[in-house]
Amino acid sequence: MDVWVDAPARPTAVLSTATSPLGSQANKDELGRATWTLLHVLAAQFPEEPTRSQQKDVKTLIGLLTRIYPCADCAKHFKEVVRHDPPTVSSGTELQQWMCRVHNVVNRSLDKPTFNCNFVGARWGALDCGEQLACDMTVGRPRK
């Protein structure tokens, strides 16, 4: 059975459930990798001078992940990690460093290798959207 990720008009994005060891169910490792990719790319896109609203939105997203993440044990652990090291969101650089730092805390708890946060920009760079300003989080932001 095939599952469409994008609209059927774009058949290049088809996942075969036969490729997953759990059939149609995602496993914790797949979920974790996808979540960390999303969070790191978000941090890479985050403006150097975010609005208060953008700062609040990122904190809200992180908070939500500590409460509604599909893996309850993961959510509980992440909540403790965030409690000990709350998100720093005053700039994109700070958010990228925080994200790398907490990812390393999680990796250590899972006996996985950690990443040198000095190279976070090279590992998780900004998204290449193709079009100029297509994925710029500051578009539509009021001028100072």
From TrEMBL:
Keywords: Disulfide bond, FAD, Flavoprotein, Oxidoreductase
GO molecular function: flavin adenine dinucleotide binding; flavin-dependent sulfhydryl oxidase activity
UniProt cross-references to SUPFAM superfamilies, sorted A to Z: FAD-dependent thiol oxidase
Stored InterPro entries: ALR/ERV, ERV/ALR_sulphydryl_oxid_sf, ERV/ALR_sulphydryl_oxidase
Pfam families recorded: Evr1_Alr
GO CC terms of this entry: mitochondrion
EC assignment: 1.8.3.2
Cofactors that this protein relies on: FAD
Reaction it catalyzes: 2 R'C(R)SH + O2 = R'C(R)S-S(R)CR' + H2O2
Domain (ERV/ALR sulfhydryl oxidase) ranges: 24-124
Function: FAD-dependent sulfhydryl oxidase that catalyzes disulfide bond formation. Oxidizes thioredoxin in vitro. Required for the import and folding of small cysteine-containing proteins in the mitochondrial intermembrane space, and can act independently of the oxidoreductase MIA40. Can oxidize the cytochrome c oxidase assembly protein COX19, a typical substrate of MIA40.
PANTHER family with a match to the protein in the record: ALR/ERV, FAD-LINKED SULFHYDRYL OXIDASE ALR
Protein name (database record): Sulfhydryl oxidase
